[in-house]
Amino acid sequence: MPMRFQSIAADVKLGRDVRIFEFVNLYGCEIGDESKVGAFVEIQKGARIGRRVKVSSHSFICEGVEIEDDVFVGHGVVFINDRYPRAVTESGHLQTETDWHVVRTTVRRGASIGSGSTILCGVEIGEGAMVGAGSVVTKNVPPGVIVAGNPARVLRSLAKEA
């Protein structure tokens, strides 16, 4: 019998026909129908992935991230859920979940996030928007535009010209 190198916790909710590749770590998350999760991906508790979403290899989707249907997440995309991360409290003790709160992020339907991008917490990537590879998204991305850079800035609209 072939050995499986996956860690999929019992509390993960998987939709119909979800494809999961080797070397993943999934716990407490929800993944919608027909989605695909590449190798070396971690999806944490409380994250929600919609239907027909492609999460490419080496990506990290943390607690508090919601990805709607038909979204593409490129290779090595990292989401962040804490504005002021610290290892220890002011008294010098290792922080626990009670010492900070999750800042939510939403990726709307049909958006695409290019490889190597970092998505800071508290932003919304609009419906059908495209984030260029290697971008750092620090503020909301309007629907239907292309953004790129560090910090990511609007380059142009994706609207079809008449």
Explained architecture:
The chain contains no helices and 21 strands. The protein has 162 residues and is mainly β. It has a single domain, classed as UDP N-Acetylglucosamine Acyltransferase, domain 1. The protein has an eight-stranded mixed sheet, with no helix packed on it. A hairpin with a 2-residue loop joins strand 20 and strand 21. The mean pLDDT is 94.
- Rg over alpha carbons: 16 Å
| Largest beta-sheet characterization | 8 strands, mixed
Secondary-structure element series = EEEEEEEEEEEEEEEEEEEEE
What do we call the CATH homologous superfamily?
A: Hexapeptide repeat proteins
Q: How many beta strands in the DSSP annotation?
A: 21
User: Could you tell me the mean pLDDT?
Assistant: 94
Beta strand % = 25-35%
The CATH class is identified as Mainly Beta
**What structural category characterises the helix and strand content?**
mainly beta
Given the C-alpha coordinates, what overall shape results? globular
What is the architecture at the second tier of CATH?
3 Solenoid
- Poorly predicted spans: none
CATH topology: UDP N-Acetylglucosamine Acyltransferase, domain 1
Q: Enumerate the strands of the largest sheet in spatial order, edge to edge or round the barrel.
A: 3-6-9-12-15-18-20-21
Number of domains: 1
Structure annotation, total helices: 0
Distance between the termini: 57 Å
Q: Roughly how much helix do the residues carry, as a percent range?
A: under 10%
